[in-house]
Amino acid sequence: YRPELYVEPAAGAPVQELAAALERIVAGWQREYPGAALQPAERGWQILIPAQHRPGHEAHFQDVVKRYLQYLQDGKLPPWETPNMLTKYRITTAALERARQATP
Known about the structure:
Number of helices: 3
Largest sheet: 3 strands, antiparallel
Helix content: 40-55%
Number of strands: 3
Order of helices and strands: EHEEHH
């Protein structure tokens, strides 16, 4: 499995303006991510990410561990983590509540 990134315009969106904006954005990435490209797709565009910019499992795991150890050292979660955790726990508890109601 390899994740891919697609952009699809919303209904009624100005497609030409969106295409131009995407072209500018991806062109700006070229300095930091050479080879990144925009390709037309069936319902919009695909962002092409070259293999050299796709970290493998081991590299990703190493990055996650480094970040986790930094959080432990700092003694606090990063600011973006709190709303993510609250959302995750709300969804989980709501799903459990519905599952209990549905069980005969």
